[in-house]
Amino acid sequence: MNPIRLGESTLLGQRLQQLDGLRGVAAISVVAFHILSAFSPELVAEQEQNTAWIAYTPLSVFWNGTFAVSIFFVLSGFVVTHATLRKSDPLWIDAGIRYLRLAIPATVSALIGWLLLSLYPTSATEASSLSMSPWLRWTYQDVIPGPISAVYDGLLDIFLSGGSFFNNALWTMRPELLGSFACFAVCLFKTAHVRLCFTFVLAIVVIIAGKYEYECFVLGIVLREAWASGRLPTVFPISALIVGLILGSQSVASMELLGLDWLPTAFTPQFRGGLLYPIAAVLVVYGCMRSGPIASALSGRTGKFLGAISFPLYLIHVPLLCTLVADLYLTLSGRPILFSFALGLFSVLMIIVAYAIERWLERPFLRLLSGLRSALRAKSGHEAVMRASA
Question: If you average pLDDT over residues 74-79, what whole number do you get?
Answer without folding.
Answer: 98
